[in-house]
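Q: I'm building a small set of examples for a reading group on sequence design. Run inverse folding on the following structure and report the sequence directly after it, with nothing in between.
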């Protein structure tokens, strides 16, 4: 009977160690997945910003020369900055 108890304890300890290793492995995989998710979210945000910029460029390019469009956008940005400064003061 004592040997049986020792055997059961040894089995429980082995199962505990196996589950602890499994939990450690899963925790590591979770951390890796969370890092990937964060990188993907940043990438999505960057791509969405690029899409917005391209859509804006296309809207202004419809008027003709791409260089002219860039200058027009720069003027609009300067005007917006002036408005923001006026609102802040």
């Amino acid at each position: 009977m004592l040997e049986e108890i020792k055997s059961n304890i040894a089995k429980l300890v082995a199962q505990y160690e196996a589950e602890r290793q499994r939990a450690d492995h899963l925790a590591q995989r979770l951390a890796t997945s969370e890092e990937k998710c964060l990188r993907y979210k940043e990438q999505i945000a960057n791509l969405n910003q690029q899409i917005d910029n391209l859509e804006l460029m296309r809207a202004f390019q419809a008027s003709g020369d791409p260089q002219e469009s860039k200058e027009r956008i720069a003027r609009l940005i300067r005007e917006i900055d002036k408005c923001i400064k006026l609102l802040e003061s």
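The helical segments are 2-61, 66-88.
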